[in-house]
Amino acid sequence: MPASTKSRPRKSGPRKPSGLTYAQSGVDIEAGDKFVGSIGSLLRRTHGQRVIDNPGGFAGLLRLDYNEQLFKHNYTDPVLVACADGVGTKVHLAIEMGKHDTVGIDLVAMNVNDLIVQGAEPLLFLDYVAVHKVEQDVLHDLVRGISDGCKQAGCALIGGETAEMNDLYKPGDYDLAGFSVGVVELKKATDPMRVEAGDIVLGLESSGVHSNGYSLVRSIIKHAKLKLDKVYPELDPDRTLGEVLLTPTRIYADSIVKLLRMYKVKKVISGMAHITGGGFEGNLNRALHDKVDASIKLGSWDTPKVFEFLQEQGGIDDDEMRRVFNMGIGYCLIVRPTFAEAVKRKLEKLGESVHVIGKITKGKGVVRLKN
After folding, report:
1. What is the mean pLDDT of each run of 10 residues along the chain (371 residues)?
2. Residue ending a domain, choose from 188, 218, 248
3. 108: containing domain
4. Alpha-carbon distance 332 to 35, whole Å?
5. At 242, phi and psi to the nearest 5?
6. pTM of the predicted model, to two decimals?
């Protein structure tokens, strides 16, 4: 969505026909302006004292901290951390279901969950929504979801862009992308070299499929002739398949930021990983250096029913499932062994479901899955 909309000067008197117009080409500027004017409250509800009001501006403004003395107390060598991501083909399911208020949460989650892996506190978020045509209700639901996600993550939604491209997207289609910025004290930023043999791997439960592997999910639906609007009791007796699959990605930012603040001096957390496409082997390995391995014990947590259902319906083998999906663990922390139980308890008090799922051993920088 545009960060702002400025009034456009108009000449007085009758207007003469001037040939082709932008609206005739499929882009409705007035509809876009109307949409921007309707979502101000969704942005403001995410704003704290760091956000600087900038009506009519071309970009959003945010102080690194609203209290200079507090900022100096918290940071001596602040480093900005930034990332960009999208929701992927999960948007196809949202479009098919006509339910657009959850994929915005996914968009925020996919960005801030990457951001906090570096030890950063999320500060701000920007979105990019590409559409065939501006549809007020659909866009409002999308931005409401983004706003909800930012509230969960503790970051400010300070602007974005809506692009109407009728010759690129089919009627009803849209795509989402996001950009997040955070800050971390340099000496507290995660570093794979801190990981040591003997460290414990903690796994935080996911809310389901999250936002990876939906091309395979949609292939399974087509292959097994499943219906999104049907309830499958073996999966969930109270929700349709579509509702289960649109469960938003869990946002771990609030819990992780609060946990890190509890250890201002001791570096008890030696590494973290957001488990997305590629599973453990394609994500947890990024938290390791080349002298250690992560040994993950399969079965140390319960696999959610949605994965068992998809695997059975699609005839997918175990290795492929673990390569594509998070299989019930959406985020990992590598923790010093003497602090593992304390960290687990703290995260549980913060609302997370936590499992001891593995251990760091001497090795070559790979993740090993063991029964």
Report:
1. 38 50 55 57 72 69 68 76 95 96 97 96 94 90 95 92 90 95 91 96 97 96 97 97 98 97 91 96 96 97 97 96 96 98 98 98 96 90
2. 188
3. 29-188
4. 39
5. -60, -40
6. 0.86
